[in-house]
From TrEMBL:
PANTHER family: CYTIDYLATE KINASE (PTHR21299:SF2), CYTIDYLATE KINASE/PANTOATE-BETA-ALANINE LIGASE (PTHR21299). Its main location: cytoplasm. Residues 5-218 form the Cytidylate kinase domain. GO terms for molecular function: kinase activity. ATP binds at residues 9-17. It is an enzyme of class 2 (transferase). Its EC number is 2.7.4.25. It comes from the Bacteria. This is Cytidylate kinase. Belongs to the cytidylate kinase family. Type 1 subfamily. It catalyses: dCMP + ATP = dCDP + ADP; CMP + ATP = CDP + ADP. It is found in: Cytoplasm.
Amino acid sequence: MAVSIAIDGPAGAGKSTIAKLLAAKMNYIYVDTGAMYRAMAVYFTQNHVNPDDEREINAAVSNVDITIEYMDGVQQVILNGDNVTGLLRTEETGKMASKTSKYAAVRSKLVDLQRKLAKTTDVIMDGRDIGTTVLPDAFVKIYLTASTQARAKRRFDELTQKGEQCNLEEIAADIESRDYADMHREISPLKQAEDAILVDTSDMNIEEVVAKLTQIIEEKKAS
């Protein structure tokens, strides 16, 4: 039986970084849900679907199949049998994904595909509503969070290392704004699932978080 791990939490909590490291350590598939939305956008672009016409979008999604594979440890995104990994980070794809990810039909289709993946292989999936909506029956649910100040400092350090000029207070304000939007959106708002384990990473480094989550999963398996 396939094991699924759901990791939810607010922006800047380190969900993707932790999920990737945990998946590699445990030999699970890391499901990059954002990459799946971009793959859907590639299909729309290639087939000249109007991103502003919801009826066109609704008609197109039934023709899409997306899955995730790994080659030499690197994630590959497969769209209708073709590897489209190299097209996911283009500006054109990003703009199309931004316009089309809001549609209920796109979301519903991708949730179905994500659940299909979780039924056939051991997965770790991160997002805003994985434990509450996408994988409500996940084997383990984690709600990964950190204080606004801790998340802002991490983002500040990340941007500074890249040589970008930034303001810590502005980053913190942006994080608070995103938190509010995520928690109050109409479809699948961000919230901790009732059976999710809260892990506050404010005073933890990456290695400590991975170790903590590994411990939680192993204890659940043992029980």
